[in-house]
Amino acid sequence: MKGLILSGGKGTRLRPLTYTRAKQLIPIANKPNLYYVVEDLVRAGVTDIGVIISPDTGDEVKAALGDGGRFGARFSFILQPQPLGLAHAVKVAREYLGDDPFVMYLGDNLLSGGIAHLVAEYRRTMPHALVLLTPVDDPRQFGVAVLDGAGRVVRLVEKPAVPPSELALVGVYLFSPAVHDVIAGLRPGRRGEYEITDAIQGLIDRGGRVTAHQVRGWWKDTGKPEDLLEANRLVLSQLTRRLEGEVTASEVAGEVVLEAGATVSRSVIRGPVHVARGAVVEESYLGPYTAVGPGARVIRSEVEYSIVLGEAELCDLPYRLDASVIGQGVAVRGQANGPRRHTLQLVLGDRSVVRL
Question: pTM (2 decimals)?
Answer without folding.
Answer: 0.89
